[in-house]
Amino acid sequence: MKVLFVCTGNTCRSSMAQAIALNELEKAGVTSAVVLSAGTGTVSGRPASEKAAAAMNEMGLDISGHRTTVLDMKMVEEADLILTMTERHRQEVIGVCPWAAGKVFTLGEYAGAGGDVMDPFGGGLEVYRRTADQLAGLVRLAVDRLVREMQASIDCVDNE
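The structure corresponding to this sequence follows.
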């Protein structure tokens, strides 16, 4: 299973979501999943924002080694599930690969909570903390769903 988180710059929301998801999947005992992140409007190789890194450090997660990645068609094609931060991002991903629409959701939609994830860019550390908290809640719900779906898939194969 390959999960891809997408935002604009890949320095804040998607990089934080990636770290949270990896942690939540590890807690759930899922070691086979690959979790990546990318941006629709970035350049490759930039670090995560300092405030995003600080907010993640407060949660016990380290994104200091993160480097931005530009979303491309290959990433979309190879991902099994693509979770975007906003509806606009979802539409951008579908614009890159229209045939991938069935595996592209906003994080809020997939988590069953709806809504977009607020962009902390340009805000203070408190804004980044609020975004990190929002992401943590949504990612936990999304990982719960993903684990259930992965288990259901395994159960179907076992019953054949």
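The two ends are 21 Å apart (CA to CA).
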